[in-house]
Amino acid sequence: MPDPNGFLRYDRRLPARRPVPLRLLDWREVYPPAPEDLVREQATRCMDCGVPFCHDGCPLGNRIPDWNDLVRTGTWELAAESLHATNNFPEFTGRLCPAPCEAACVLGIGGAAEPVAIKLVEVEIIDRALAAGTVRPRPAPEPSGKRVAVAGSGPAGLAAAQQLARAGHAVTVYERDDALGGLLRYGIPDFKLEKRHIDIRVDQLAAEGIDFVTECAVGVELSMDELRFGHDAVLLACGALAARDTPDTPGRQLAGIHLAMEHLVGSNRHVAGLLDRPPIDAAGRHVVIIGGGDTAADCLGVAHRQGAVGVAQLDIYPEPPSTRDEGRDPWPTWPWILRNYPAHEEGGERAFAVAVQEFIGDSTGHVRAVRIGEVSVQRRSGRRIVTPLPGTERELPADLVLLAIGFDGTEGGPLLDQAGLVRTASGMIACGPDWQTDAPGVFVAGDMRRGASLIVWAIAEGRAAAAAIHEYLGGAGSLPSPVTPMLDTSAPPDRSLRLPSMA
Ligand SMILES: Cc1cc2nc3c(=O)[nH]c(=O)nc-3n(C[C@H](O)[C@H](O)[C@H](O)COP(=O)(O)OP(=O)(O)OC[C@H]3O[C@@H](n4cnc5c(N)ncnc54)[C@H](O)[C@@H]3O)c2cc1C
Ligand code: SF4
User: Fold this and answer.
1) Closest Cα to atom 2, ligand 2: which residue?
2) Is the full-model pTM beyond 0.85?
3) Residue of the nearest CA to atom 10 in ligand 1?
């Protein structure tokens, strides 16, 4: 029986992060493992609500009160089983999810108490299970005789592949990159997710019978016709990797101005030991990062670890409040608040409500400064109107500029042409209620369908698309399907209206 007074006895507490001066010396994750008594204490704060809003806040429908209570009593193995019932990869979400479940926790109503530390409990359950060796492969008892191809090995593709393989289908994952994991592999830095976590899961998936083919871009190395001919169904999970640029800003052509992903991918490859040096190195540089989201925060952490002299992060939007504005975002919705990531503790300056007017070059054609000015931003009829405030212009020194201003949906190219699919106005691939695109037998999930989003949504969509494919193939029984694809993908992602999305 859960402790209804636990939250009155214990405050919310998280383990201390590694000290900044130490963690800037390496690429390891910033959180050390938490002691067992702290995790059990924090799980005890859960009231096991009659209507657990945390559950609804999670796209996966994680059984949060159940595993909180199992952790409270120290029943770790059953807690891991409960966690895996709804989530294929809790070690990814436990580390990286912005936790809409915590924003929806009943304890947060009216700010009376702080929400349960759900993410902490989640990551500690799975880390203990992995360390104890209880996360074993679960191959299907018998094959279905059907073959499924998955294009893309991000969390959406991998979650779908695991669900389908466990249902008996022969699954092959085709990945364009040289390693598996999607954005988790070469987008997200190691200080947020060490890559061994991906490797462990890939080993499990391989032991469950999934075949992986890397360095194989569908549409280039393997045509869509070949893929469809060789498989009974195809899932496209190729992400939303078309980076947004700012081609009309004067000076954009100067050397030293890069897309954020060029910086992050090069750094991750260097950290992985694949490159001697990072191709875009912030060492000794004045860095300006344009963008206020998680990609920008990742560039900030990388720039400091590379040895930047100074880093400024510019956000076009005004500074959000530090706590939930109940009038604007009442509980249990996702609140618009200032999000401070561990990278922000490590240094750098943040400026809000400013926009770049010009990149200024030196005599060699290299950027030396950015001219910025204050702006006001309004939304009219769904469109963003940015108005510069005269007389507020100033220059910031910059010899490396990183553009972290979001993504314009999935990339165009031969895959879509060969499948006969077109991107929506927002750059996504639309599908019907059964996750099937306009191409028969071709399904879509994850960022490729919903636009740049979150890992938790990618896993949820991968699971749901797998359930639809299983039904399409006439598989026995049904697979769990936590979400539907009915979100209007023709509307532009709006971070203030939807669950957290990435920029
Ligand atoms: C820098 C950064 C930091 C982020 N941080 C967080 C975070 O902290 N928390 C969070 O929840 N979310 C975060 N996200 C978002 C999250 O990573 C994505 O929402 C998630 O990875 C989407 O999963 P996916 O499987 O749909 O696509 P992806 O992870 O993008 O994977 C798509 C895969 O498809 C492959 N591919 C593309 N085209 C082809 C082709 N033709 N043939 C074969 N393969 C192909 C790509 O190489 C890639 O591996 C971050 C995103 C970025 C960019
Ligand atoms: S809403 Fe909060 S207190 Fe209630 S069951 Fe969920 S985690 Fe526990």
Assistant:
1) 105
2) yes
3) 454
Contact between residue 495 and residue 430 where contact means Cβ atoms under 8 Å apart? no
Q: Could you count the other beta carbons within 10 Å of the beta carbon of residue 69? A: 20
Number of the ligand 1 atom closest to the C-alpha atom of 156? 25
Residue 348 φ/ψ region, left for φ over 0, alpha for ψ in the -120 to 50 degree band, beta for the rest: left
Which ligand sits closest to the CA of 156? 1
Which SS3 state, helix, strand or coil, does residue 79 take?
A: helix
The CB of 174 under 6 Å from ligand 1? The reply is yes
293-331 pLDDT, tens digit each = 999 999 999 999 999 999 999 999 999 999 999 899 999
Whole-angstrom Cα distance, residue 70 to residue 33? 19
User: Which residues make Cβ contacts (< 8 Å) with residue 238, sequence separation at least 6?
Assistant: 151, 152, 176, 218, 410, 411, 415, 448
- Of 54, 68, 109, 118, which is best to mutate to test ligand 2, by the most ligand atoms within 8 angstroms of its C-beta? 54
Work out whether strand 367-380 and strand 383-388 pair parallel, antiparallel, or are unpaired. Answer: antiparallel
Q: How far, rounded to the nearest angstrom, does the alpha carbon of residue 198 sit from its chain's CA centroid?
A: 14
Ligand 2 pocket mutation pick from 8, 45, 49 by most atoms within 8 angstroms of CB: 49
What are the φ/ψ torsions at residue 384 (nearest 5 degrees)? Answer: -90, 125
pLDDT digits (tens, 9 = 90+) for 162-193: 999 999 999 999 999 999 999 999 999 999 99
> For ligand 2, which residues put their CB under 6 angstroms from it?
46-49, 52-54, 64-65, 68, 105-107, 116, 118
Q: Whose CA is nearest to atom 4 of ligand 2?
A: 49
Place of tokens 């008892």: 141
Calpha distance 81→79 (Å, rounded)? 5
d(Cα 137, Cα 134) in Å, to the nearest integer?
A: 9
